[in-house]
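Materials and Methods. Structural model of DUF4281 domain-containing protein. The 140-residue sequence of DUF4281 domain-containing protein from Gemmatimonas groenlandica was retrieved and submitted for structure prediction as follows.
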Amino acid sequence: MSDAQLFQYANTTALVSWIVLVVQPKRTAPTLRFVVPLAMAVLYIWALSTAPANPDGGFGSLAQVKALFTQDRAVLAGWVHYLAFDFFIGCWMVMDAAERGIKHLLVVPCMLLTFMFGPVGLLLYVGLRTAMSGRAVKTA
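The predicted structure was written out as tokens:
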């Protein structure tokens, strides 16, 4: 199986998992938050361990990181890293919102932003969570 095919499978898995999480949050979040990121962790480890060595690559400078991502296998690993962590954060938001009594409909935009832009969605959710906790304190 080629790196391009694995990339497509990872993307499809992430997209379908996000859709299921948006549509069936309470039923799926506890299971999906482990299954999807752990499956992607396996792919990530495989991609990292089989990527060809790049003597110019590394994490010490922007130039080294750019050199790392000139190889398809390294890009696959990096992309799967994003997909796994963003999805894990999405599951956490769903479960945290349920515990705090935040309506799922308010969390959906945070989830969509997390899916597309990672930290932007997390920041929005933290703002929502803060705003809702202040509201709960005022009404209590």
